[in-house]
Hints:
Layout: E1 5-7, E2 16-19, H1 22-31, E3 39-43, E4 49-57, E5 62-69, E6 79-85, H2 89-102, E7 106-111, H3 122-136, E8 143-144, E9 148-149, H4 150-157, E10 162-172, E11 181-186, H5 194-202, E12 206-209, H6 217-229
Parallel strand pairs: 1-3, 6-7, 6-11, 7-8, 7-9, 10-11, 10-12
Antiparallel strand pairs: 2-5, 3-4, 4-5
Amino acid sequence: MRLHRFYIKTDLSGDKITIVDKETINQIKNVFRLRKGDQFMIFNDKKEEVVATIKNISSDELSAEVSKKIKNDSEPQNKVNLYLSILKKENFELVVQKATEVGVSKIIPVISARTVKMNLNIERLQKIAKEAAEQCGRQNIPEISEPIKIREAFEEAAKNGVTLFFDRYGEDISTWKPGFQVNIFIGAEGGWDEWEVELAKEKGFHIASLGKLTLRGETAAIIATYLAVK
């Protein structure tokens, strides 16, 4: 039987675990209805992961014993930073979930020339990334940064790694292996403004395409992340 998996900022190096985070306890106790004697998996940001057996559980505290330590090598070798122009709320949230599942390292919301929607809830996006990492078996939870303007995003990306600026008229990269650290730029619902494409070229970014069809922003973001991670 597949065990439920949770992330928490707790030391997992010892034989016993105490959890006092009420949200996590609520998930374990009331959502998944685990009880004394049940097992679950838990991991932290120190690359520690264990199978634990519940010894006592209340609304305020859970105590457990470590049954097994796990070596998790699920993280992709490539580090992918996704610079995503802000999309509609539900579309952006979908990208956060699916990009986390395929291995993105960081998601940076970008205010581009044709950005319309600005109502991002960063705390909610971080929660979506956490839950997606728990579900899919990842060791690391992607960072979700605060929104930045497109020029600032260009300056930041130009400092590290290879940058792929996705545009319908770019070069097809479906079979290209981009390298260890990759920055991906995906436009808003209305695409890129002409000056943004020209500035990307000036920065030395690779103008890339996912094919001849016009993809929705959320579709392009998920596919591009998957290809870069692989």
